[in-house]
Amino acid sequence: MLKTFPVGGVHPPENKFSAGKAIETLPLPKTVTIPAGQHIGAPTQVLVKKGDTVKVGQIIAKASGFVSANIHSSVSGTVAKVDEIFDSSGYRKPSIVINVEGDEWMEDIDTSDTLIKDIKLSQNDIVKKVSEMGIVGLGGATFPTHVKLSIPDGKKAEYLIINAVECEPYLTADHQLMMEKGEEIMVGVSILMKAINVSKAIIGIENNKPNAIQHLTSLAGKYQGIKVEALKVQYPQGGEKQLIKALINREVPSGGLPLDVNCVVQNVGTAFAVYEAIQKNKPLIERIVSVTGKSVSKPSNFKARIGVSADMLIEAAGGLPSDTGKVVNGGPMMGKALGRTDVPVTKGTSGILIFKEEEASRKTIQPCIRCAKCVSVCPMGLEPYLLMTVAQKGNFERVETERAMDCIECGSCSYTCPSTRPLLDYIRLGKFEVGKMIRARNQR
Amino acid sequence: MSNQLLKVSLSPHVHSGNSVHKEMYGVIYAMIPALLVSFIFFGLGAVRVTLIAVASAVVFEYLIQKYLIKGSNTIVDGSAVITGILLAFNVPSNLPCWIIIIGSLVSIGVAKMSFGGLGQNPFNPALVGRVFMLISFPVQMTSWPKPSFMNFSLVDAETAATPLAIVKEGIKNGESLTDLMSQIPTWTQMFIGEMGGSMGEISAIALLLGGLYMIWKKIITWHIPVSMLGTMVLFSGALYLVSPEQFVNPLFHLLTGGALLGAIFMATDMVTSPMTKTGMLIYGIGIGFITIAIRVFGAYPEGVSFAILVMNAFVPLINTYFKPKRFGEVKKNG
Ligand code: SF4
Ligand code: SF4
After folding, report:
1. What is the pLDDT of residues B225-236, one digit of tens each?
2. With a 6 A CB cut-off, is A376 part of the ligand 2 pocket?
3. Suppose B239 and one of A256, A422, B3, B247 were both cysteines; which one would form an S-S bond, judging by CB atoms 3.0 to 4.6 Å apart?
4. pTM of the predicted structure, to 2 decimals
C-alpha cells in the first residue's frame, strides 16, 4: 500500500495536459515589470532608479529585515520607471520596469550547463548565499527559503522533506523539471541537507508521475541519504503538514511548524533554484511555469524570466481562447484568479491556468443538507459547514474555538459540497476576523 | 491585454460536480429494488400507496414552498420524492388514501417545512409521518395484507400479521417460543421478502442491494447501518444466550420489523444524522440498543421508528461532543 495522509482529502480530475512537454525557453521580452515584493514577509527597498542600466542577475531591490528576499534583475537594459503597477493580486504594487537591451549577464554567474556536484560552501555560507540570491519557496507560498534554513537555537532538524507531489491538478512544472534536471535537483537537495545539517532527505512524489519516481530513484542511489518515496495520489498532499504525516507519520501540532517535529520542507523547484544559486552563482531570476487548460491549444511548460507579462506566456501557448472565462495564477484548487492578463510572472507563479466560460462560474448556493462530506474531506479535521455558519453569523469567538486558524485553505470542502456552498470563502472571512482579534489581544 | 472580461473569484476554481440533485436521485435509485419487491408481493395496492404518497409529498412541498415560505422552489431536488417513497415503505399496502395524505402532510408540513425546509429539520420527516399515523390510526396501520406473489387483482387480499407481531403477541399470551417460530415464514422467505409487513421493509436482499449502492456512490457510509445492526445483534444475542426459550434469536430481529429499512434508509438520512464518524457510530449504537429494548420490553412490536426519532433528538448533542479528531491536536495537561 502506498503511503498517504490518513484524514480527509479529495481526488479531483488531474487534467495534466502539459505533462511530458519539454521545458521551452521563452524568448526575451521587450520590457519586464518586476514587482518589488514577491514573497511573504517584509517589503524590499528598491535600489535602482529611472535611467539606471542593469545586467541580468544584478540586485535591484534589497531585503529589509530577516523575513524578506532580495530581488534581482531578470534582464539587461535600462530602468524605464519605478512605479506602482498592477500585479497578479489585482492591486498596484511598487514595481521596477526595465526596457530590455541585449542579454548581458553579471560576470560571476556561470551560465553553462555543466553539472557541479562538489559542494564547497560551509553550512553558514550556504544559508547566507541562499538569502543573497533571493530564493523563496517556489511551490506558490513564496516564503523566503533562508528563513526556513536557519534553525533557531534549541531546535534540531532530523529530516529534509522535498515536496515533489505537485498535487494541484493541471500543473506540471515540477514534474517536467524533475525529468530534465534530476541531477541538479539531487545536488540541490544535498546542499539543503548540508544547510540544515541533516543526514536524511525524503523526496515525496505522487504515483501519477511514475517516470519521475523512477528517474529520481535511479539518481538517488548516487547521493548520500536521499530517498524517493512514491505516494498515493490525494489532494492536498502538497500541504506541508499532510506531506510530513504521509511520509514519516508525524503530526505537526496545531499552530506549530514542521520544525516542531524536526522537519524542514522544501519544494523540489526550490531545490533546483538552490543548486543554481550555490553552484552557479545564479540568483532567482527565472522559473518554470505551466500554461494549460482544457481550451489551450498548446499546453506548455515554459522557462520564463521573472517579470515577463502573463500575456506573453499565454500567446506562446497558442493565445487566449475566445471562450475564456477565467485565468488563474497557480493551480485550480489554491490559485488566484487574475482580473487581467497583462500582469507579470513572479517568483510564485507556478502555472497559468485558463478556464472556459462555462467552467468559470460557480453554481447556485443551496441549503446545507448536512451530508457531512465537507467534514470527511477536511484534511485538518475541521467542520467546514459549522465554520461557515458561525462566520456568517459573525460569531468569531466560536470561529476561533472551532480552530479555523488550522485551516490550510486547501479548498477540499468547497470542492466537494453538493450544495456548492462557498465554505472556504466564509472560513477565510472568519480567519481574517480571528486574526484581527488575536493581534488586538497580543497588543494588550 | 485582451479585452475579454475575466471572472475573479476565490479558490477553489473547480468543483466536484456533486449536487443535491445527484445525492437525492442516488437515494431514489437505491430504493428501486425494495420498491419492486413491494410491487411484486403486494401488487397494485403497493403501486397505489406509492403514487399517492409521492404525489402528495411533492404537492404539499410545492404549495408550502410557494405560498407559505415563499422561498425558492426545491421540488426539483428530489427530497420530497424520497420522503414520499419512504412514507410508502413504512405503511401497509392496503392503507386508505386519506390516511396516506394526512401522513404526508404531517411529514412535509410539520416535520420538514415548519423547521425551514430542506436541511433544517431535526427529525426524519417520513418517520414523524409514520409515527403520527401509527398513533392516530393504529388499526389501519397494523393490518398487513398477506404477500402473494405477482397477484395483481384488485380484490382485497387476506391480511397477515408481521412475524414480529406474531411473536410478541404469542409471548404475551404465554405460548412457547418454539411453537411461535414455526408459525412465522421461513428464513428464505424473510430474506426475499415474502412476509407480512410494511411495503418497504419486507425484503432484506433488496434493501441490502440499495444500501451497497449508496455506499458505493458515497451517499452514505457504513458507520450508521453497521453500528446499528451490530448493536441489535449483540444485545439480542446476549439475551438469546441467556434464555433461548424466552428470547428470539438475533437473525430474526435483523430480518423483521423494518430493521434493515431503518438502518439503511431511515437512520442514514443525512439531514437528521450526526456529522462525524464517531458521532455516527454512537448514533447507530443508540438506535440499535433502543430498538431491541422496545421490542423486548416495550409495548410496540417494532421499535425502529421510535428509536431513530429518539436518537434524532440527540444529534445536536452528539455533534457538540463528538468532534472530528483535529489534525495536530495539542494535548493539554490538566
Ligand atoms: S476547512 Fe480549510 S483545511 Fe478544511 S477542507 Fe476546507 S479549506 Fe481545507
Ligand atoms: S458538504 Fe455542503 S451540504 Fe454537505 S454538510 Fe458540508 S456544507 Fe452541508
Report:
1. 999 999 999 999
2. no
3. B247
4. 0.89
